[in-house]
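Write out the 3D structure for:
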Amino acid sequence: MRLLNVDILAEDVHVLAGFYNQVLGLPFALPYAREDGWAALRIGEVMLFLLPSDQAERDPKRSPGEGGRPGLDSLALEVEDLDSSIDELGGSVTWARSEPTRLEQPSGEVFRFRGLHDPEGNLIYLSEFTPSSRGN
């Protein structure tokens, strides 16, 4: 099995489609037409569907590491160079923390990531992964 798609319920599909496509650079997986009311973008081999929500109430924006209701917490997008990606996005996004987080695993693998919020407050991480060089 493999992950095929992830769905985000949106207050405004058009605004989110613009953010994910124009700001984060995700290509549309299927033709996008605002009047259809939904969008499908591609994240590697996975499709990200933006679907209209029938609810107006949402959870408040969270910072990384804060608890919340059970359910999907965030999306993480792997980038080759976290610092370059942060510089490229600069002030065009709302960062969830002021600095990246670094996690070094006992195996020597290193994860560096920084969270941001999309226009509706969903938490997205830009993540850089460095495999272990130990014993190789």
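The chain is about 15% helix and 30% strand.
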